[in-house]
TrEMBL record:
Domain of life from the UniProt record: Bacteria
Record-given protein name: Aminotransferase class III-fold pyridoxal phosphate-dependent enzyme
Gene Ontology cellular-component annotations: cytosol
GO function terms (MF aspect): pyridoxal phosphate binding; transaminase activity
Organism: Parasedimentitalea huanghaiensis
Family, as annotated: Belongs to the class-III pyridoxal-phosphate-dependent aminotransferase family.
Record carries keyword Metal-binding: no
PROSITE patterns xrefs: AA_TRANSFER_CLASS_3 (PS00600)
PANTHER family: AMINOTRANSFERASE, AMINOTRANSFERASE CLASS-III
Alphabetical keyword list: Aminotransferase, Pyridoxal phosphate, Transferase
């Protein structure tokens, strides 16, 4: 079979998929039984599947399709670039126009003196770059013992050996021999799940001070960097208390450790500013970017670094790089995506229109009997499903309510993800108030159906 088209019957596509395609983060045997949903095309915020269902994509793919689907401009740029120069590398003293223009544009958009970009093909690769770069930075400065990178439990930084080690996902560490040496994890600022009786702000401060404790325990002379997502995404859209980030910044400054903001989800408008670090008021030395950089239309990521880091790393040869670092087609597509984000005022649309409207509707979901809290920053939100609204106690059977709710979302033509018993959204940034109304009404219907199912199965008890 050399020409799979969208015209095969769904069952035939599913059978071929099950026979030959290994899916990420999926129990493939189970998937083979059920059959994968086949997505055939998309436009704006709407996906169409092979059965003709039109599905509202409240996850923007995997948090990435910031400008929405179906923008011909990106397709045209890609085709033009493929004809002109489909590939050339940026090793060995060469460069090309798309990568130059993209690096300059990112430098212009990035805050402070984050003026230099090392390109990668994905967020995982970019974080692998960061591991090597921060360790090499300190070695070049005559402090080779500074090699420990501090991260957080329940962080997500990618799936490669290095980035998966930076991440704090226990299910990932359990497979394939992670983490690599000299990665240290502290606790996350997840008040809802872990804050006990503490006031959220007091808890946020305490969790930030874990960084200081870790630095003192490990020894300042061993610590290279701290990495974190401004708002944890894959961990469940966990918005830290307001006390958290200023204290982290204070500690990074005091001990002179590099701060890496992983902006793979938060970057390019998601939080209502160009970058999440601006929303959280922090000054990273390095930002990891991917996803929204090209709105997912082409695979590209990178590390955006400060003048100081670039000067130290650039003084000698950094023995690092990927075949597709600064790929001309991906770079041209990303540049066009940034043009659209900027010229169409999409970040302003988020800040002034979409995010305030979504926040009001999202937070109102707390009137539902299943919803314990609603959190939202810009266009990333989460709700905690609870068996009993009088307390923060979790379900006795963790994850089932979330799973049922996600299935009910699908049944109502809405893509909303679950992380355990938290439901999360991250819609395309171009979503309109009318489309937000549709999102919320489908979410409410799914919540109602989930509640009914939990009642029927006698699963509304706390653990
Ligand atoms: N950092 C962050 C903060 C991410 O969210 C990566 C790095 C890795 O990027 P790449 O491009 O290598 O995937 C991510 C990716 C999920 C999910 O289920 C989240 C991601 C990827 C896949 C699934 O929420 N985030």
């Amino acid at each position: 079979m050399n020409a799979i088209t969208n015209h095969l019957p769904t069952a035939e596509l599913q059978a071929l998929d099950a026979a030959h395609h290994m899916h990420p983060f999926t129990a493939n045997a189970e998937l083979a039984d059920k059959g994968a949903r086949v997505i055939t095309r998309a436009s704006g915020i709407t996906l169409t599947d092979s059965e003709g269902n039109e599905i509202l994509d409240a996850m923007a793919g995997l948090w990435c399709v910031n400008i929405g689907y179906g923008r011909d401009e990106l397709a045209d740029v890609a085709a033009r670039q493929m004809r002109e120069l489909p590939y050339y590398n940026t090793f060995f003293m060469t460069t090309h126009a798309p990568v130059i223009a993209l690096a300059a544009k990112i430098a212009e958009l990035a805050p402070g003196d984050l003026n230099h970009v090392f390109f990668a093909g994905s967020g995982s690769e970019a974080n692998d770059t960061n591991i090597r770069m921060v360790r090499h930075y300190w070695a070049e400065k005559g402090k080779p013992t500074k090699s420990v990178i501090i991260s957080r439990n329940n962080a997500y930084h990618g799936s490669s050996v290095g980035s998966g080690s930076l991440g704090g996902m226990s299910g990932m560490h359990a497979q394939g021999g992670l983490p690599i040496p000299d990665i240290h994890h502290i606790e996350q600022p997840h008040w809802w799940a872990e804050g006990g009786d503490m006031d959220p702000e007091e808890f946020g401060l305490l969790r930030a001070q874990e960084l200081e404790k870790a630095i003192l325990e490990l020894g300042e002379e061993r610590v290279a960097a701290f990495i974190a997502e401004p708002v944890q995404g894959a961990g469940g859209v966990i918005v830290p208390p307001a006390s958290y980030w200023p204290e982290i910044q204070r500690i990074c400054d005091k001990y002179e450790i590099l701060l890496i903001a992983d902006e793979v989800i938060c970057g390019f408008g998601r939080t209502g500013n160009w970058f999440g670090c601006q929303t959280m008021g922090i000054r990273p030395d390095i930002m990891t970017i991917a996803k929204g950089l090209s709105s997912g239309y082409a695979p590209i990521g990178g590390s955006v670094v400060s003048d100081d880091v670039a000067a130290v790393i650039g003084a000698g040869e950094f023995n690092h790089g990927y075949t597709y670092s600064g790929h001309p087609v991906a770079a041209a597509v990303a540049l066009e995506n940034l043009r659209i984000l900027e010229e169409e005022g999409i970040v302003d649309h988020v800040r002034d229109v979409a995010a305030p409207y979504l926040k009001e509707k999202w937070e109102a979901l707390t009137d539902h009997p299943l919803v314990g809290e609603a959190k939202i920053v810009g266009m990333m939100g989460s709700i905690a499903l609870v068996p009993n609204k009088d307390s923060r106690a979790p379900f006795a059977e963790a994850g089932t309510a979330g799973f049922i709710c996600r299935e009910r979302c699908f049944a109502n033509n809405l893509v909303m993800r679950h992380v355990g018993d938290r439901m999360i959204i991250s819609p395309p940034l171009v979503i309109t108030p009318a489309e937000i109304d549709m999102l919320i009404s489908r979410a409410r219907k799914a919540l109602d159906e989930c509640y009914a199912e939990l009642q029927k199965r006698d699963l509304l008890s706390a653990g």
